[in-house]
Amino acid sequence: MTSMGKFIKRLLLALILLIVAFHVLVAGLLLMWKTQPINNSMFMLTHRLSGGSVTQKWANYDAIAKSAKQAAIVSEDSKFSQHNGFDLDGIEAARKKNEASGSMSAGGSTITQQLAKNLFLTSHRSYTRKVEEAIITVIIETLWDKQRILTAYLNVAEFGEGIYGIDAAAHHYFNKSAATLNRDESALLIAMLPNPKYYGKNKGDKRLRNKQRIIQRRMNNAILP
């Protein structure tokens, strides 16, 4: 074997070991976070490194209003309680939409996939990131139950500039705790999730208010874990 061939072999081995080490770290953190509050994520870390401040306070499952959990499911992942981390119908629909547009504008991501991205990855869209997201999604679904996944998602999701988690959002926008959110407030906060920085400064936006109404109409259909 030539020296170049040996170098490439060593490089590939180092890359494989690095990937394995990363996933071992992910699994270790998930095991710790199975019972402990999560007060940091890749999105929060990126925000801090860019010079911003982060506001976040952990709220347990029972300290989050039922309406907020219902709103999250009907808006972000209607089959959340039935699937194992992947909505195949949603993925297929997103694939067709991306092929038609020639971009990766649609992701078809479940709540678990979004949580994997928020905790460990970045917002950069690529097929490589989607593969990594899928691997972490499997690990999350293996180690956590659905209540923990939904709780973690609502606690690390971004609801505005530097505002992370449903409790911080409830205090910021309504001066109340996540436990006391009503249906209108819950629907509005969840409707902000696709573009929280923009909607946080434009709460009267017609698209936001229309989505809020749609979420409210569907809320009773949510199957909670």
Polypeptide structure, described:
- This protein has 225 residues and is mainly α.
- It has two domains: 1-33; 56-221, Penicillin binding protein transpeptidase fold (Orthogonal Bundle), CATH 1.10.3810.10.
- The protein contains eleven helices and two strands; from the N terminus they run αααααααββαααα.
- The protein has helices at 3-33, 42-49, 66-76, 88-101, 111-120, 127-143, 146-156, 166-174, 183-191, 196-201, 206-218, and strands spanning 158-160, 163-164.
- The chain has a two-stranded antiparallel sheet.
- It is elongated.
- The N and C termini lie far apart (56 Å).
Q: Compute the number of helices.
A: 11
Low-confidence segments, given as residue ranges, are: 101-106
Strands side by side in the biggest sheet: 1-2
- Report mean pLDDT, rounded to a whole number: 90
Give the fraction of residues assigned to helices. 55-70%
Q: What is the CATH topology descriptor of the largest domain?
A: Penicillin binding protein transpeptidase fold
Task: Quickly name the level 1 CATH class of the largest domain.
Answer: Mainly Alpha
Principal-axis shape equals elongated
Q: Kindly state the number of beta strands.
A: 2
- Major β-sheet, in short? 2 strands, antiparallel
Tell me the distance between the termini: 56 Å
Q: Please, how many domains?
A: 2
Structural class: mainly alpha
The share of residues in extended strands comes to under 5%
CATH homologous group name of the largest domain? Biosynthetic peptidoglycan transglycosylase-like
Order of helices and strands: HHHHHHHEEHHHH
CA-based gyration radius = 19 Å
CATH architecture of the largest domain: Orthogonal Bundle
GO molecular function: pentosyltransferase activity; peptidoglycan glycosyltransferase activity
Domain Glycosyl transferase family: 53-219
Pfam families: Transgly
Pathway: Cell wall biogenesis; peptidoglycan biosynthesis
